[in-house]
Every structure is written in structure tokens, then in C-alpha cells.
Amino acid sequence: MDFTYLDSLLSFYEIPFWVIDRGQEQVVFSKHSSPLVDFNLLKSCRQAFNQNLLPFIYVLESNLGYLYWSNGAYDFVGGPLLLTDYSGLFQHQLPDLLDIKQMSVAECRQCLTIISYFCNQSLYLLSDIEVLWAHNEEYYHVRNQEIDFYRFEKSENERRHDSISYETTYLKLIEEGDEKRLLDFFDNQSLDEKNIGKIAETSFKQMEYMAVSSITLACRAAIKGGLNPELSHDLSDLYLQKIAKCKSEKELIVMTGKAQFDFCKAVGSHKDSRSDNIFVEQCKDYITNHLYQICKVGDISKKLNISRPYLSTLFKISEGITIQEYIMKMRCEHAAEMLSYSDEPLSVIAEYLCFSSQSHFGVQFKKFYGMTPRQYRQKNKYIKTNI
Q1: Residues 6+ apart with CB under 8 A from 211
Q2: Do 114 and 17 share a structural domain?
Q3: What is the pLDDT of residues 180-233, one digit of tens each?
Q4: Is residue 80 reached through a cis peptide bond, with omega within 30 degrees of 0 on the bond before it?
Q5: Where, if anywhere, are coiled coils annotated (predicted)?
Q6: Count of structural domains within the chain
Q7: CA dist., res. 120 & res. 19, Å (int)
Q8: How many Cα atoms within 13 Å fall on the side-chain side of residue 134?
Q9: Contacts for 151-160 with beta carbons within 8 Å, 24 or more apart?
């Protein structure tokens, strides 16, 4: 095989490259590299190639990438390359990798398509070329030796998992919606870091994982305390989004504390307004979950498997208003939130909350708030700041 075109091409890209004769298992061409090739790496690449017969970029856990393609008779291997797309994952290793050719994944794909065309007239699309990570089956399991080493390290550093009593206590307080006792608990109790397992290599990542775990557990405790599951999960989703934006351990601690108290407060508010009648509570939950849809009393009664008149009577006795009045009240409350915290036009809010028209929205809103939606927005508009 003539490698003249390949030699010229590699002079342009300046990447280490080998061509291996598959029959002889010998390097028949090399450029910018030693004539020696890692045959364990080659074996892994061949196995991956046999699954889809397309060129690919093979990435080791060290962030070193290799280009691979085969025409059946020869293996074409380029690398190692430092893939700039993933360099942020391995910042601690960069000083040791500065002498290695750096390329983006897009550049690697272009190089592979050109090489395969010149060497075998095989035409591939850039989208055909995948990035494959070199994780073997063991990577996805915790091995016995890892467990043994972790236990030894725990013993050496006197770490134990004694956080369960602390966790059980504060989750119980969230479940009960008792803000005062939760505040007293956090003021008088502190969690020793030695009583928490090591779940990350850095203190920031450890705190981030703990924050995510705490919010997830608080969400479950709030649901157990009677908070509407959809509302609880919404609160969890939003706090987890905020956690992802935190830049320091202090921010993570403050955000986690705010989340725990918000869950506790939400449960407390729910308990204060909760009816002793299970059908009434289920009716209110249904309305909360279907507030942005046409919500009919007949649909609710059918869902709860009781008669419409009976449900209407129970609800009026318990809440002092009809189901339709409650639905309208909840819609106006949500509309008030949107007027304060969004720039959505009144027509959009009216449609979103299933008012029959913008004028109907205005009339109903004024009944509850004593002013039009436009006046309410002007008076209560939330102004975003960077503080």
C-alpha cells in the first residue's frame, strides 16, 4: 500500500500516527511517533470497531484521545492527542500533558474522514464518527479491593457513618412542618465531618453532593408530611438548579439551609390549611396538579370515585367556598405570582391559567385582589438585581 498521500496529510496535522498490517501484526508506517505501538490499546480499538465498522475517537480516562479506523487489512491509529473539549475534566494533569498535540473533537473528526478517504476511498460523514470512552466492565462496579481500601482509609482517619440520627431528626421536623424546632435543632446541633463518608475527592464536590442528597431527602420528608408531591418535586427541582450554580462551599451551605426551611415552611402551611376530610384534600391536590387545564368538578369526583353532589357538599362544609370558587382562587394566586415575577403579557397569563378571556381574567382577579392585573403588576413587580 502506498502511504505517500497519508504522509503528506500527517505532515499538515502533525499528529503521531501508525499503520499496522493486521495479518503480520507489524507496524508498516509511522509518523511523528515511535515505531512501537500499544497492542493492548489496539486490541480494545479493534473490538470497538467490530461493533459498528465506523471510524471513531477513543478516549482514555486520562483524557488522551486516539483516532482509529480500519479497512480490514490495516489498522490506522493516530495519537495520543490531548482533546481540548474535555481538558476541564483533567486540569490537575495538564502540566504533564503539555507536550502532547492538542486537538478538538471536531478537528479529529475532520482528520479521520480525510484519512479514510485517501487510504481507501471510504466516505464518512462527520456525524458518523463517535467518541468512545475506554471504560471496561470493571469500571462500572465497586470491587472488593476498593471496599477493603476504603475501610482501611476510614479507620486510619477515624471516620464513621454516624449521621443517621442527625438526619432522622431534622427530616422528622420537616415532615411535621415545625420551623421553630428545626431552627433550634440546627442552632444546637452540628454534624461532625468525621461522621460523614467520603463521597468526593474535593471538599467543594463533597459539599455539593451532600447538598443534593439533603434536598432530595427533604423533598421526600415534605411529601410524607402531606405536601402535594408535585409541589414538593417542583421546589426540589428549582433548588437543585440553584445548587448547580453555586461557586463556593459557603453558597452551598446557605442554599441547602434555605431549601430545608422552605420545605418545612411549605409543610407547615399545608397542615394549617389542611382539611380533616381525605376527599377534600385529594380534591385540592387534583386541582393543584391540573391548574393549567380545564378543571371540572365532575372530572374530580370521577377521579375520587365519589358522587359530584357529595364531593361538593363535603368541600363547602370544610373550606367555606365551592370547588369552583377554590379553583378560581388558586388560579388568581398563581396569576399574581406570574404578574410579579414574569414579563408575560396579560393575555398569555389568562390563557395559561384557563380563563375564558383576558377580560374574564381581569374581573375575577379584581374580586380577590381589589385591583386589576395591570395595577397589581405595577405595584408588586419584582425587580431583579445582581446583589
Answers
A1: 243, 246, 252, 253, 255, 256
A2: yes
A3: 998 888 888 766 665 677 788 788 888 999 899 999 999 999 998 888 888 899
A4: yes
A5: none
A6: 3
A7: 13
A8: 19
A9: 153/198, 154/197, 154/198, 157/194, 158/194, 159/194, 159/195, 159/196, 159/197, 159/198, 160/194, 160/195
